[in-house]
What we know:
Blueprint: H1 19-27, H2 40-70, H3 75-100, H4 102-116, H5 124-130, H6 135-146, H7 148-161, H8 179-234, H9 241-294, H10 300-328, H11 330-335, H12 339-345, H13 349-365, H14 382-402
Helix pairs in contact: 1-8, 2-3, 3-8, 3-9, 4-9, 6-8, 6-10, 7-8, 8-9, 8-10, 9-10, 9-13, 9-14, 10-14
Amino acid sequence: MNILYxxxxxxxxxxxxxxxIAMFRLTHIVGWPIEDDAPRWAYLFDRFCWLxxxxxxxxxxxxxxxxLRFHIQNLDELLSGVPTYLVLVEAHIRGFTLGYRKDKFKKxxxxxxxxxxxxEREHPLLYKKLQPxxxxxxxxxxxxxxxxxxxIIVPIILLISGSRELIFKMIPPFDYSAFAIYFPCLLSNxxxxxxxxxxxxxxxxxxGLLVLHLHTRFVLMKENLQMKTKELLQNPSNTQIALKFRKxxxxxxxxxxxLNLFAQxxxxxxxxxxxxxxxxxxxxLCAVASKVYTNPLGSLAYIFxxxxxIQELMTIGDLGSTLIATTDExxxxxxxxxWEHIIERSLDSRENTRLMKLLTMAINLNRKPFYLTGLxxxxxxxxxxxxxxxxxxxxxxxxxxxR
Length: 403
């Protein structure tokens, strides 16, 4: 029996998953939903893991904050602990928000794979054209997963050397020198590391999957309108041509409405977590860059993380810009649909009037593009990301000057 939710297409076949999403499904029980028909014990185990991970994150955050307070007067030591502390706080908020509402997340995925996903078997050319747009997502995911080397090699070195250090810079509120206490603490560090990396690499991939396939559906909608209009104009008969074209416009408007509603569902699902991501991005980048600057040889994992974070922000910003550009082309789509040639050939003045009113309504309803936002505080776009990176650079310059 498959307990973890496995997305299926409308015909019941298993949907293909990219490797970051597949890894997230297998390693992040906190955020990934379970199947609808999973047994009761699986649901209880899922909730237990969510609660256990929440407690471990709370204890880890508290221990890291103790480290920061202890070294408040030592800027170098402070900068050693700030990056992981900020990353854990961000992961805590994003991961457990997703975990708390993962049933809604599952419904979003179910609707997506049944109604929005562009199947390779039905649209092979569009599907092939879509695939290169996922490469930037895989690049930064690879950088994030490269940091997992740190969570595999370091624990082995610590155990072999007999050291009682932990992976994160932290001061727990108890004595962990005894191996029976130290080993569970080390395992909890490893688990936290895997949860953080799998979340940060997979969530933008999921957002990219939804947005890019939605973009392709808008492209299909435009192509279908053009194709049906062309068929009407190529037909020498003028009988009820305005009525037939009006039915085509009604079908297009209904499809347009369906896609707009799904775009709003994406906004509802990701808005808060995007707000957290973008809000903490500048200070996180500043802290990580400072750590790399002070100790470049000992900060290999941080270097991968920093470039991964920048690539993640750029990719999400590009997704937002893509959605803006795609929906901004919808209103002109109706205006340039060759309606004037339909009117010219139609002899039914009443039907012509109805058609013009319908087109005017469609153009007005889509006069504004759709913006993906972070709780409506900012728009997700490349311009926003560039401002964040510039802000991080300014903070970094200021922080280095204090040293």
